[in-house]
Specification:
alpha/beta, 8 helices
Length: 265
């Protein structure tokens, strides 16, 4: 398994330059990636929140090897052509190191209702599927003509294209027990299951997405100190060390970074 930090960019971590320095230290300590949360609002006592794309750009400039990306971004509140351009620019800036984590999101802290976004989870799922189809087309570099239920692109060509071909890898977030996100993940490049507490549950997820196969990643996130035994055998290819979003401190994250990856790849 490869190892990454999974960081809520909140409060003391809501400064892109600070997170970029942490990323550089993580790279030196032997970690393989750093993924950031994507939220507009969060429950108390979280106060400050950084923009994921600006933060990831800062990380890209401060590192040479780390895999980076949002984990996960709710695409229903973003426009496909804009996301296609942002992700391409980040992939080129990083030299082809981006992973795009996606999901439907939820309305915690009125993050959707407070900005007039779609609240029906089924509709958000439809929007996500359509959005991903548009992204795949846009990254080809050929004119995209798309007239869907939710999005319109009328002969738009987006150049340049990502460094990674045929496009940036897409990992789909999925709650354990939810079938539709797993079917969605099977059509893309990876799955990021949440609320999976033991390797046997992860093995169920891996079977549901078509089993272990080359080029398909399975990422699992747990707090520092969690026993890593059994997860690789269950199909995990990435171990993400996570942090509580409540009261996260820079010293806490730096301490985990300095301890080094829990698994040596």
């Amino acid at each position: 398994m490869q190892t990454a930090l999974f960081v809520p960019i909140f409060d003391e971590l809501a400064e892109p330059a600070v997170v970029a320095r942490v990323a550089a230290q993580a790279e030196e300590a032997g970690w393989d990636g750093l993924f950031v949360w994507d939220h507009l609002a969060y429950a108390d006592p979280v106060d400050a929140i950084a923009d994921p794309w600006i933060t990831l750009a800062a990380i890209a400039c401060a590192t040479e090897r780390l895999r980076i990306g949002p984990m996960v971004t709710p695409l229903s509140r973003r426009r496909p052509a804009v996301v296609a351009r942002q992700v391409t620019s980040l992939d080129r800036l990083s030299g082809g190191r981006v992973v795009l984590g996606v999901g439907t999101g939820d309305d915690g802290a009125s993050e959707l209702s407070g900005t007039g976004e779609q609240l029906d989870p089924k509709v958000r799922g439809d929007m996500l599927d359509e959005h991903l189809d548009v992204l795949r087309q846009a990254w080809t570099g050929v004119p995209v003509t798309h007239r869907g239920e939710h999005y319109l692109l009328d002969g738009l060509t987006l150049h340049p294209t990502p460094v990674q071909r045929p496009g940036v890898p897409i990992w789909v977030g999925a709650r354990y027990g939810s079938r539709r996100p797993l079917r969605r993940a099977a059509r893309h490049d990876g799955v990021f299951p949440i609320q999976v507490t033991e390797p046997a549950q992860l093995a169920e997820v891996v079977e549901a997405v078509g089993g272990s196969r080359s080029g398909f990643d399975v990422a699992i996130a747990h707090r520092a100190g969690t026993d890593t035994a059994g997860w690789a055998e269950a199909g995990a290819t990435w171990w993400l060390t996570s942090f509580s979003p409540y009261g996260i401190t820079l010293d806490e994250v730096r301490g985990v970074v300095a301890d080094g990856p829990p698994i040596r790849t």
